[in-house]
Write a structure and sequence with these properties.
With 603 residues, the protein is an alpha/beta fold. The protein folds into two domains: 191 residues, P-loop containing nucleotide triphosphate hydrolases (Rossmann fold), CATH 3.40.50.300; 304 residues, Rossmann fold, CATH 3.40.50.300. It has 21 helices and 23 strands. The strands form four sheets. Strands 16-17-18-13-19-20-23-22 form an eight-stranded mixed sheet, with helices on both faces. Strands 6-7-8-3-9-10 form a six-stranded mixed sheet, with helices on both faces. Strands 15-14-11-12-21 form a five-stranded antiparallel sheet. The N and C termini lie far apart (54 Å).
């Protein structure tokens, strides 16, 4: 079978303030029709640059294809993408080659509705009328399991959660049933249940249409479940390639072995009483954390937290309904401990985190940080409080200023709070870059010059800069490849041990949650449905949704691959209720000490 894609000797360069940089050097591999090729490697290894070159989008980011051939077997005949003119590329993009981008907020236009953006490609490439394009858009949103798809079409990207935006991008990429789907970290922002359904959808389309998939990811469990062949990249070069079974069973390159060793696996912590650092090949052995933090005093207490967003309709923009994003949430976070908040995208995890810092104003409830009630604070006192509670945001590109150098962005909180100045400030910024494993040469760079994972490390350094007591980490490691993820998780545990930091760790990665957590709270439709010690939640899950979450976790072993079947599930319940609706209070049943499960509430 002839290859659908044949990349030979690809070399891509960028011009930076320090001079020309070669991001990809002499990369070669093929993708056959109906085949899934997974490209893996650390952030900055050249994975995304390779995929962007195949779409000729790398040029819009300042890159130049210096050498190589990018042969694509288009419907009209084979062509070299590297030499194709603009008109030819417009006909390919979104039609014969679809792409799911890594950061959905930056790949969606903030000034157009979701419906407008989805319809544009369908009207251009499929010649559909306005009504037919809208109907097809609704169908696509249903396929990616977005609730209330008709209403979502009239919303703007900022009105959707990160996971929902990612699903919109996936729907857009697959709208025209492309011959090649390039998926750049397509499930990074998705919880495991939605991830399983998206992978099932991609797998079904591949089987039905013969579509090829170039799958770029750092999730080795997804690689094990999806890949036919694996390409391992490091520092812009291919270091190993081969069938997925051989790569996992007998990796030849030391870097591939290190990647596989850094993968957190569900069940590894079954008999461990406290979070433990991950072993990184080549690094010195690390001591296990002590499990004696249970008696620590609470640093953060949340009581009956409720956050709702008004839905305005009609020419007078009257409030006719409310989105019940967070409903009657209560928990306690002790000093020096990590509470993980898990659940599907749109369940209210991120809104809970933002409500704690009053970046989103809660509707009701109490938030007590180190003995101080936050919800009643004025602007000046609230600003002081934020030194004690910092946040690492889900989307690093959106949370960094594109016009400021990275050193200035990490230094800014210290300047604002007056914690350092002059030479001390410069030294502390450099030390923070060292802590998050970024080279000091990056201090003078801008956010667009870094990969997604590198930008996330800058965001982590900035959150650490003022020495907070509590850090709300909203998907803080979801954008990181497994080797860097292991380093950052170990860093967070080291900081916790050294400084007594407390973390509210918001994540959809159950294996990571098991590794870092003391306690776990599972959220569904704005409520905590189960909460308790990590060992109890993982060993004895009581709520049906908790059990479904754990059952959906992919396994990093290609010999235990299961066929994903996209469930014909019932429509996802809506968190939108008419104005004036008063839902019942949450009632819990005690399963064991500190382990509670929801028995009433919701709706």
């Amino acid at each position: 079978m002839s290859a659908l894609v044949d990349i030979a000797g690809l070399t891509v360069g960028f011009r930076t303030a320090e001079g020309p940089v070669t991001a990809v050097a002499d990369v070669s591999f093929t993708v056959a029709p109906g085949e899934t090729v997974c490209v893996v490697g650390e952030s900055g290894s050249g994975k995304s640059v390779t995929s962007l070159s195949l779409m000729r989008l790398v040029e819009f980011g300042g890159g130049t294809i210096l050498d190589g051939r990018l042969r694509f077997d288009a419907a009209s005949g084979p062509l070299d993408v590297a030499q194709a003119d603009d008109a030819t590329m417009r006909g390919l993009r979104g039609n014969e080659i679809g792409m799911i981008f890594q950061e959905p907020m930056t790949s969606l236009n903030p000034v157009f509705t979701i419906g407008r953006q989805m319809a544009d490609g369908l009207r251009l490439h499929r010649r559909l009328g306005r009504t037919a394009a809208r109907a097809r858009a609704v169908e696509l949103l249903r396929e990616v399991r977005i609730p209330e798809p008709e209403r979502r079409l009239d919303q703007y990207p900022h009105e959707l959660s990160g996971g929902m935006r990612q699903r919109v991008v996936i729907a857009m990429a697959m709208a025209c049933r492309p011959r090649l789907l390039i998926a750049d970290e397509p499930t990074t922002a998705l919880d495991v249940t939605i991830q399983a359904e998206i992978l099932a959808l991609i797998d079904r389309l591949k089987r039905e249409t013969g579509m090829a998939v170039l799958f770029i990811t750092h999730d080795m469990a997804v690689v094990a479940q999806m890949a036919d062949r694996v390409v391992v990249m490091r520092r812009g070069r291919v270091v190993e390639t081969g069938p997925v079974d051989r790569i996992f069973a007998a990796p030849e390159d030391a870097y591939t072995r290190a990647l596989l060793a850094a993968v957190p696996r569900l069940g590894e912590m079954a008999d461990r009483p406290a979070p433990e650092p991950m072993h990184i090949p080549g690094a010195p052995a690390r001591a296990a954390r002590r499990a004696d933090a249970a008696a620590a005093a609470p640093i953060l207490e949340v009581r009956n937290l409720t956050t709702r967003f008004p839905v305005r309709t009609g020419p007078l923009r009257r409030v006719t309904a409310n989105v019940h994003a967070v409903e009657d949430v209560s928990f306690t976070l002790a000093a020096g401990r990590t509470l993980s908040l898990v659940g599907e995208s749109g369940c209210g995890k991120s809104t809970t985190g933002r409500s704690l810092l009053r970046l989103v104003e809660p509707t009701s409830g109490e938030i007590v940080l180190d003995g101080h009630e936050i919800t009643a604070l004025g602007a000046r006192d609230l600003r002081r409080m934020r030194r004690d509670m910092q946040m690492i945001f889900q989307d690093p590109f959106a949370s960094l200023n594109p016009h400021m150098r990275l050193a200035a962005q990490v230094a800014e909180p210290m300047r604002n709070f007056g914690t350092a100045r002059g030479g001390e400030l410069t030294d502390r910024v450099a030390d923070l870059f060292d802590r998050v494993k970024l080279p000091r040469s990056f201090l003078t760079r801008y956010p667009h010059e870094l990969s997604g994972g590198q930008r996330q490390r800058v965001a982590i350094a900035r959150a650490l800069s003022v020495g907070p007591k509590v850090i709300v980490a909203d998907e803080a490691v979801s954008a990181l490849d497994v080797s860097v993820q292991a380093q950052v998780l170990n860093l967070m545990m080291d900081l916790q041990a050294d400084l007594g930091l407390s973390f509210l760790f918001i994540s959809h990665d159950m294996a990571v949650v098991e590794r870092v957590s003391h306690d776990v709270a599972v959220m569904y439709l704005g409520r905590i449905v189960e909460i308790g010690p990590r060992a109890a939640i993982f060993a004895n899950p009581q709520h049906p949704y908790t059990r479904m979450l754990l059952a959906s976790v992919p396994v990093a072993d290609p010999t235990r691959r299961r066929r994903f079947e996209q469930a014909d599930a019932a429509p996802i319940p809506s968190p939108v209720h008419p104005a004036g609706h008063l839902p019942p209070r949450s009632e819990y049943r005690d399963v064991a000490p500190d382990h509670r499960v929801l028995v009433a509430g919701g709706g």
